[in-house]
Amino acid sequence: MLREGADYYSRLYHRHQLGLYTLRTIFGRMYIISSPSWTQAFHRASKSLSFHDLVAPTLHSVLDLDPGTLQIFTENLNDERGDRSGVLGEIHDLVKRVLAPRSKGLEEVNQVFFDEIAAHANVLPRGEGTESVGLWKWICRIMSTSSTTAAYGPYNPFALEPSLVDDFWNIAQNMHILFILPRSWLLSYLAPKLSEARQRVFRALREYSETENFTSGSSLAQESAQIRLSKGMTKSQSGQAELSIVMAFLLNTVPATFWFLTYILADPQLLADLRQEVDTCTTATSHQLILTATKLRTHCPLLNSALRETLRLAAPMNTTRYVREDTLFRNPVTQETYLLRKGSLAQIATTVIHQQRDLYGAEAPPEEFF
């Protein structure tokens, strides 16, 4: 599992064709769901399955927060008081409100993001000029700096200190090591380069928080910082905790963008069709072409379909929950039942479901989601 990641679930499914099964690991039982019907049973049992119970070990292993901060984070963890108070609940509600479709907060973030992307695109060679780039590293740099600038504003540490982008992706690509080596002293001894990368990111985020540079950031950055500080976190620990927000911004969007462009560039006809479609969203002036970004969603059905098809094929969207109490799943199609034991993990292997030919067919046309 550590070596293959989500591909391990695909290999098991192709070998055994099971929609729900138990996988025993050194950490305990995991229930792997790889069929749409068992996925329905998963969602119907949402009251006994918890995401927040998985957060505490993540806070300790990945964010290396002190005991007092961990206690603040885990207060009213599963809304036991019924009032949505507590850091995790309030930030969850904040994200839903601020980044809701057509909300002012989302428009604000998108405006800065597209301006940043345009600035990067406008310095690309024109005419006959060419420049060879490593696509993954190029996309990492552009998407990471543009996304974080949209969130953190003019004092974005990842833009002011570009080497932090490489440090972040060192952390992201070695998360399993952080869980295996949760103690910072042990990490520094056995994985010194990873430890140093994390410390550099922590230092920059702590400085961003301690100098209150978040007041110049997006409403999401401002309000999430205020929530943490209002609960009693120090500015230093609040900044360190900001790494979780950075991960939420980047861990899915950057790989998805890479695969999106890879699939497009590998298909000359699709590339030509998409260029023609996007051209209809541009307005020519005497010296430039202006792309209206909002039209990419409303006037480019092929572009949007190709994006959704890329997400189906490549996005790592497995959903994991902690089983808070013994829970009986009932398959709504076959009426089979399956007992999930308290203290285990239940995971929807979305990547497996998205690759099932009986659901989506053997081909992967970009028009799939027209």
Automatic annotation (TrEMBL):
<dbReference type="InterPro" id="IPR036396">
    <property type="entry name" value="Cyt_P450_sf"/>
</dbReference>
<dbReference type="Pfam" id="PF00067">
    <property type="entry name" value="p450"/>
</dbReference>
<keyword id="KW-0472">Membrane</keyword>
<dbReference type="GO" id="GO:0016705">
    <property type="term" value="F:oxidoreductase activity, acting on paired donors, with incorporation or reduction of molecular oxygen"/>
</dbReference>
<keyword id="KW-0408">Iron</keyword>
<protein>
    <recommendedName>
        <fullName>Cytochrome P450</fullName>
    </recommendedName>
</protein>
<dbReference type="InterPro" id="IPR002403">
    <property type="entry name" value="Cyt_P450_E_grp-IV"/>
</dbReference>
<keyword id="KW-1133">Transmembrane helix</keyword>
<dbReference type="InterPro" id="IPR053007">
    <property type="entry name" value="CYP450_monoxygenase_sec-met"/>
</dbReference>
<keyword id="KW-0812">Transmembrane</keyword>
<keyword id="KW-0479">Metal-binding</keyword>
<feature type="transmembrane region" description="Helical">
    <location>
        <begin position="243"/>
        <end position="266"/>
    </location>
</feature>
<dbReference type="GO" id="GO:0004497">
    <property type="term" value="F:monooxygenase activity"/>
</dbReference>
<dbReference type="GO" id="GO:0005506">
    <property type="term" value="F:iron ion binding"/>
</dbReference>
<comment type="similarity">
    <text>Belongs to the cytochrome P450 family.</text>
</comment>
<dbReference type="InterPro" id="IPR001128">
    <property type="entry name" value="Cyt_P450"/>
</dbReference>
<dbReference type="GO" id="GO:0020037">
    <property type="term" value="F:heme binding"/>
</dbReference>
